[in-house]
Design goal:
By secondary structure, the protein is mostly helical. It contains 21 helices and no strands. It has helices spanning 2-16, 21-34, 41-44, 56-71, 73-82, 84-101, 108-133, 137-162, 169-172, 193-203, 213-230, 233-249, 254-272, 278-285, 290-303, 305-308, 318-324, 334-342, 344-360, 370-379, 393-445.
């Protein structure tokens, strides 16, 4: 009954807001960030193990897409035909993923299929459509992503100061890794500390497009504090790259840039000596076997690649395969996990499509830092099992890839209009020249008298 009520609410929202697609996209992102996947049962009443136990925001994505296909069919199909090879490749991947999900022993395969593959890809499609209608919506989605990251960072720092999560403790406790004493890494209301790290790494380059220097610096410090609360070493290294990019590409006067750099360095020195950085500092000195686990996962995958080249064991099978292979952890990479689950070639098609769309956005941009954000959301998930469970990572990755795609489309359209405009400017001159050549004979051939 709870699920039926939620589906009815989603359908009503999708219909009532059918002319405000951008609002529905933002709501989907906010809902995914506000409630972790393990707590989705609060809304739907569907427990883990059920094929319908996917995140409740996925229902809103699916129903919004269905309504949009009816409401603005031509706009949706226009983007489909414009990126026909992209959607063809993704369709091939989804068909392979669906067929393998049927081999699962529980509903987990279908859950991941819908929440981490179908739902995010449909959100990508709608994002491109929404921005194609009104290009300024790109900046709107960017601002919402920055706001979500800032709020989650503040929550993570508060959790660090209190020594415990603020919300959803009973649901987080169902995760094998959750331990507030022995695993004091914080994530706000997201699904895992590394998911928050991915979000922060992705949005940091987008700060270069924020006009106010002091708002830019304030958000940067908040995001870096949140990153330290996650204790992510990879995130820390990527964040350094993001900070350097922002400080070097933002339009600032020399003195303002010097002051901004001084603030960042001073704040970094203070934080480095505080307890907030103690956790990540300890992880930098004491690896805890993490690097060895990743090396073992790569070795195992390489040795067994022929078994997973064309087909996999089904969605969710990677953990069992890794355990039978003697590994004590997961494969520690979204690519490796998907390759074992679905086959290396289909996995290469999936992540290769993402990378191609991001690379296509390289060049002059109306949204500074977006190309780097896109590159990071494709690369960073390959350093942990970001997309192998119900997390915010799936919609985050495909939303930013959608922004990159829309920006590249806009630049291509502007280039084509510029070429057409230059051609049109030259056309009257040539037409006039031809007219001048033919007009005299016409004038003299016609008797002007009535």
């Amino acid at each position: 009954m709870q699920l039926v009520a939620w589906v009815a609410i989603c359908l009503a929202a999708a219909v009532l807001l059918r002319d405000r697609l951008i609002a529905l996209i933002v709501v989907c992102l906010v809902l995914w960030a506000a409630v972790p996947g393990v707590a989705s049962v609060m809304v739907t009443g569907v427990a883990r193990g059920n094929p319908l136990a996917f995140h409740f925001a996925t229902w809103l994505i699916l129903l919004t897409f269905a309504v949009q296909m009816v409401h603005q069919f031509h706009a949706m199909i226009a983007q489909l035909t414009r990126h026909v090879f992209v959607f063809l490749g993704l369709t091939v991947f989804l068909v392979a993923a669906f067929l393998t999900s049927r081999s699962g022993q529980s509903g987990g395969g279908l859950v991941l299929f819908l929440s981490q593959m179908v739902g995010p890809i449909l959100l990508f499609w709608m994002t491109v459509v929404a921005i194609a209608e009104r290009p300024e919506r790109l900046a709107l989605i960017r601002n919402w992503l920055l706001a979500i990251a800032a709020i989650q960072s503040v929550l993570a720092v508060i959790e660090w100061s209190l020594g415990g999560v603020l919300l959803y403790r009973e649901y987080y406790a169902t995760n094998y890794w959750f331990d507030e004493v022995n695993f004091p890494r914080w994530m706000g209301t997201l699904d895992h500390p590394l998911t928050l790290s991915l979000l922060i790494c992705a949005v940091l380059p987008l700060l270069s497009g924020v006009r106010s220097v002091w708002l830019q610096l304030g958000l940067m410090l908040v995001l870096l504090a949140g990153l330290l609360a996650t204790q992510s070493r990879t995130g820390l290294a990527v964040a350094v790259l993001g900070v350097v990019y922002v400080l070097t590409t933002s339009p600032m006067k020399p003195m303002t840039r010097f002051l901004a750099l001084s603030v960042v360095i001073g704040s970094g020195a203070w934080v480095a000596s505080s307890q907030l950085s103690a956790g990540v500092a300890q992880r930098l000195t004491e690896d805890g076997g993490s690097a060895g686990a990743r090396e073992a996962a790569l070795t195992f995958f390489y040795d067994n690649l022929p078994n997973f080249l064309f087909t996999g064991g089904g969605i969710g099978s990677a953990s069992g395969v890794a355990e039978r292979g003697g590994l004590t952890t997961s494969l520690e990479s979204s690519f490796l996990i998907y390759a074992v689950d679905l086959g290396a070639l289909f996995t290469l098609l999936y992540f290769g499509t993402q990378l191609a769309l991001v690379v296509r956005s390289f060049g002059p941009s109306t949204c500074r830092g977006l190309w780097l954000a896109g590159l990071l959301v494709v690369i960073v998930p390959q350093t942990f099992n970001a997309l192998n469970s119900q997390t915010f990572a799936g919609v985050l990755v495909w939303t930013i890839v959608g922004l990159c795609t829309a920006m590249a489309d806009r630049r291509l359209d502007a280039t084509e209009r510029s070429v057409e405009s230059r051609s049109a400017d030259r056309l009257p001159n040539s037409s006039r020249a031809r007219r001048d050549e033919t007009t005299p004979s016409v004038r003299f051939a016609v008797d002007p008298r009535p």
